Amino acid sequence: MLQNDELFRLGPLGRRTAAATSISVAIGDQLRYDTPAFIRVPYTQLVPPDPALERDDLSEHHRALQAFAYHLARQTGNVSALEEASREAGKWIRIKSIIGNAMLSAGAKLASDLQNSNKDKIEVTMRVVESMIQTARSAGSPPGPKSSRSV
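Request: output the structure for the sequence above.
Response:
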């Protein structure tokens, strides 16, 4: 079986990595049951607050990728890719974008009351649940509805 340095042609990575033969020492050979099986993340936490802004964002990372693509196109002599990589958006495209962004801003302002109302409902619900948990903890019983069955 090929070693990682042979497989990926990494070359020497230093004495420490040359001496390492396996990560099994760090991982261990026993299954651990004291860790969560998975981590649940609500979808609402994965969505950016303003997805439209995310789409239009041109970060330094994006600019670097574009510069790299331009560099590669120039090195390979790919004239069509070079022209495509250096082409700027036309005036009409920029005007449409300005109008679209203004409409998005207006739409966000119009929808903000409903969004705030929904946030308020969630906060009230969370306070009720937290209050029930706190009451149950101070009473020494598990939180939840009272059982109607007699023991």
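DSSP finds eight helices and no strands in the chain.
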